[in-house]
Design a protein that fits this description.
The complex is a heterodimer of chains A (555) and B (249).
Chain A lengths: L4 H16 L3 H12 L14 E7 L8 E7 L2 E7 L31 E2 L2 E2 L2 H14 L2 E5 L5 H12 L3 E4 L3 H6 L1 H6 L6 E3 L6 E5 L10 H11 L9 E5 L5 H5 L2 E3 L6 H14 L14 H8 L3 H13 L3 E5 L4 H9 L9 E3 L8 E2 L9 E4 L14 E6 L10 E4 L8 E3 L8 E6 L12 H6 L8 H15 L3 E3 L3 E3 L6 H9 L3 E4 L36 H10 L11
Parallel strand pairs in A: 6-7, 6-15, 7-14, 9-10, 9-12, 10-11, 15-16, 16-17
Antiparallel strand pairs in A: 1-2, 2-3, 4-5, 4-17, 8-13, 18-19, 19-22, 20-21, 20-22
Chain B lengths: L4 E6 L8 H9 L18 E6 L9 E6 L9 H5 L5 E3 L6 E3 L9 H5 L6 E2 L26 E2 L5 H13 L13 H5 L5 E5 L6 H6 L4 E2 L11 E4 L3 H4 L6 H9 L1
Parallel strand pairs in B: 1-10
Antiparallel strand pairs in B: 1-8, 2-3, 4-5, 6-7, 9-10
The chains are: A alpha/beta (555), B alpha+beta (249).
Amino acid sequence: MKVTRRDLLAWSAGAAAGLLVTPVPWKILDDVSIWSQNWPWIPQPAHGPIEVKQSFCTLCPNGCGLRVRMAAGWPVGVGGMKTHPATRGALCPLGFGAHQLNWVPQRLRSVQRRGRSSSWNEAQAAFAKACSDGPVVVIDGYPGRAASVVMHDFARKQGGSCRVVATAESRALSPYEGWTGIPASSLGYDLENTATIISFGAPLLDGWGTPGRFTRLWAERAAEIGDPQLRLIQIEPTLSRTAARAWKWIPIREGTEFALAAGLARALLEQKLVPAHGPIPAMTIPESAAQTGISVDAICDLARSIADRLPAMAIAADQNVSVAALNVVLGAVGARGGIVRRSPRSEHDLPADIEISNARAVLIDSSVPWSFVPQTDAETFRFAAWDGAPPKADWLLPAPGFLEELTDIPTAPTSAVETYAVAPALAKPTREVRSPAQFLAALDRDLVSPEKIVHARCAEIFRSHAGTLYGQESTSAAKIPSVEKLEEQLWAGAVWVHEPSTPASLRCELNRWPSIEVSTPHTWGSDWSLPVLPPLASKLYAESDLRQTPPRRKA
Amino acid sequence: MNARYGMVIDLDRCTGCGSCMVTCAAENNVPALPQATARTGITPMLVRKVSNGQEGSDRRETFIPILCMHCEHDTPCVKVCPQQAVEVDKATGIVMQMPQRCLGCRYCMTACPYHARYFNWWDPAWPAGMEKSLNPGVAVRMRGVVEKCNLCNARLHAAMEKAAAAGKREIDPADYVPACVEACPTGAIHFGNLADANDPVTHEAQSPEAFRLLARLGTEPKVYYKSKDAWVRALGDTSSTRLSEVQHG
């Protein structure tokens, strides 16, 4: 049979048409689609044994409880620890993406001296020389840890001192130091027992204090729109996230919180809505109204609303003596549902924001916010896990990142009770990092290691037989048979809480209403110590327009 | 299993913290690509701020998390997909997206009245080493496919495996909780089986305070919202264009 050109074309056309009714082209299309979605260079998750471990967030001094999902030995997911007595499973949004922080391009990779690569030996030699020339000042952003004790001891031996960069919440407690003689670091807010909170711009629902503690409390007692069990009154110029969810939002002229605090105190005292606890402010209610832009009637109504539901407590966004004085008038200092003394500690922390004139070297811990720059001419050695550029110290020293070192978790700055927990290292350090304690131990072999201090603290808690251990189940510390058992539970994620039956006494003396102090507005994330946000948080905030975030860097 | 999984989101309890967005992206291995923008990024859970339009002390704001609504009836994305890459799972009611079948035509994105679908414009990439932090339970999706919320289907599979290992046919509801529900610090997102008359979520969905976005389209979305404020409930009658404005700023 002779095959013509026409036959060939007809056969080809028939074959093409026939092929379309077979599954072949569709299967090829499907397979090409699958192959082209699985190129070998596409990153794949690490596979390996999956386990869930408990730990604590160390990115700020609030120490929220974490449930960390691990795969092949690496953290692959972070959630809240449901057994944590304060946060009860809640976390701040940044915590949920924190496990990716150790891998961000901004991770400090090597020792740097004034922007140039250097080595640990050179840094050690330079620090040793500075120490031999004069005293050392240590700056800590997360006081009370075992590592803080090591740094403090080193500075003291060198004739120097340890200073603390306080959070906005701690600064808001500082006015009471002068009136009670008790350091702000021993005071806390008894949120759980209060009925009315008057927030002067404090971002209570936006990362204030231990984030989960208030959000959980608000959800349980204050989220109802009608007449909630806990009234949250937000006094703020703009409709913030907290104001949007408050029982009452009082818009006020910016920077006039002091005037409203004085006006409210005056109204409470003049109308005998509260027993006279403190001094009468010189500012009259009409003067307060003129400054704040709130009518006299509204101020009086607000005072009645507060007195209607006691105990009440005022919370300032930052240091504000007038708001603190309002608490004295409300009888909230040293009372249930107010400002309480949680610890017998009586040493005052030296603030870090005053000039350092007598030191040859300043060592800055990685817990100090990146934005902090000490006022000093001394050589500065800054530990940091992430580089925020431009360099803000003579030496930048790579510190352990998220969950890369064992650390203890002392009481959070706003807590009403003493707590203690231990965050074991869950991730292998991804760089050649050293903690300040390791760095200092190389210079002074007599320093006690943080691990030994943690053991000593556990032994102290065991001997006290006081408090409760909150783990998978709550156990009285008195029922724990040995210090080893106590440590075992703490290492597994339990939290020790000291809940005394009678709160420590707090005597407050304020004879004159404090002089006027203009308040500064609080901005979200100003206390975030890292120069970077978890990459997913910055991505999603930028894409959702939910928050203002710093410009994202190209990877 | 013959469930109809859905949610009731109590908008009066949402503080707009964004925890649900972050945890959703972490759970589902969404890359944080620096070139992504509000229009090109992948945000299976997107929280938006909306106001009552007033100014001064009369202004009120609320936060509305927007995700795939898992439409039950005439599901628009299913109807337009030429590749059968989208289907409503008969056993769970979850609208499933199969990236292996997706050709990236984006008809489904156009059809979705909620704008809750996202296109993968780029190869997924992470800074060196960060792949170790990815969730091993969820595959990484490739450039050129559409993706969206699948109610953390990997968690459902894990729950089913657990039930099967225990010799049970039904999963324990406590074993299947999507990441956003677990992360919400105020407990604003309630998840459950809407086909179960005894499920608290079913009761909530029937409350007079509950509403659905664009319910008038008749697609029977399985994500409900709830608020005591009338102006918030009025969002249910908003137009698709207005919803797009809310989503894209």
